[in-house]
Amino acid sequence: MRNDRDQGAVQLTLFDQPVRTDKSATLATPERLTPESDLASGRWWYRLYLERHGHPPNTVSAYIHDLVVLESQVRHKPLRHISASDISAYLDSARRKSTRKRRLTSAREFYAYLIREEKLLTSDPTEQFFPERIHLKTPIPLFDSDKNKLMLAAEGDGPRSLLMVYLMLNMGINRTELLALRKEHFDLSVPESPVVYVHYDDPRWRHKDRRLQGDSQLTAAYTEYAATLPDDRLFPILPQAVNALVHRLARNAGLDRSVTPQTLRDTFGVDQARSGKSEDELLAVLGLAADPRNRDSVRRYIKLAQPPVDVVESTAS
Questions:
Q1: Same domain, 149 and 279
Q2: Could you tell me if residue 75 is left (phi over 0), alpha (psi between -120 and 50 degrees) or otherwise beta?
């Protein structure tokens, strides 16, 4: 029986198309990178960099596989000669929008490494390309009266519900972040100004790390609830259970509309915009990367935070 692992050249089926690569060439350490190095050397050193910095194996594999596809198109062209036209052909050969988006991410991260870490290049051939745009729905935040009703319903339901709703509604913590919280992420050394640390283990999402400040209501809810927990994890439940809880509390509060964890985060975003936060400040407090789609997202909050037209006109007159 033929064993492909023993062959000098192996064929990899990489998502959309088969790509041939010389496996034996990957075993020897290539010379240090220069602008004249080819993509094969570049991805060898890039893999080493990713692994040394703790990126998950599946992330490393996905990035390297996409770069093999690019390498199959540009062949032995030096890194400094790979152009926007090469990137365009690489993206256009993807059969699905999701594949195109993933390939662009892989190439963009690779060139960020070459420019920022290795300081080999000064221009990025991927910068003029953008992922497929996804039309954003207009958020419908809660009114102040609805927020008060929801908080009262959460308080009546118990300390866990109160803490969860507070963190999403008053601190903008999303569902994934909520379920990752542990006791060690809370600093109650100043009870009137408790701090919650949002932390991501995955190096790709370190830009989402942030320090959020609450008030005495958070301290009271956390202290009462945390005392009942057997271990460090705050909310050992499934993501769907968070949605179900928010839906149930909204119903108990008498809110005649659909309310989800995203509704609470949208409400927080609009409140922050209303308090005067700029576009960049909103990105930071929400843990969003400063890319075009996220900027569109926070601009919606800024727009919704503006006074109605008739109020502005009456004030001007």
A1: yes
A2: left
Ramachandran area for residue 172 (φ above 0: left; ψ -120 to 50: alpha; else beta): left
- Residue-averaged pLDDT of the chain: 87
For the record, the structure tokens of 207 come out as: 């830009």
**Could you tell me the residue range of the domain that residue 106 belongs to?**
9-117
Nearest 5 degrees, angle CA 31-CA 45-CA 89? Answer: 105
Q: Residue 163: beta bridge partners?
A: none
For the stretch 31-65, pLDDT in tens is 889 999 999 999 999 999 999 988 888 889 999 99
Report the pLDDT value the prediction gives residue 19, as an integer from 0 to 100.
42
Please name the amino acid found at residue 300.
R
Count the Cβ atoms, other than its own, within 10 Å of residue 120.
17
Amino acid identity for residue 290 in this structure = A
Q: Is residue 130 part of a domain?
A: no
For residue 119, which phi and psi values (nearest 5 degrees)? 55, 40
Which pTM value belongs to this model?
Answer: 0.64
Residue 8 has pLDDT above 70, yes or no: no
Q: Is residue 311 scored above 60 in pLDDT?
A: no
Return the ∠ at Cα 104 (arms to 103 and 110), rounded to 5°.
Answer: 90
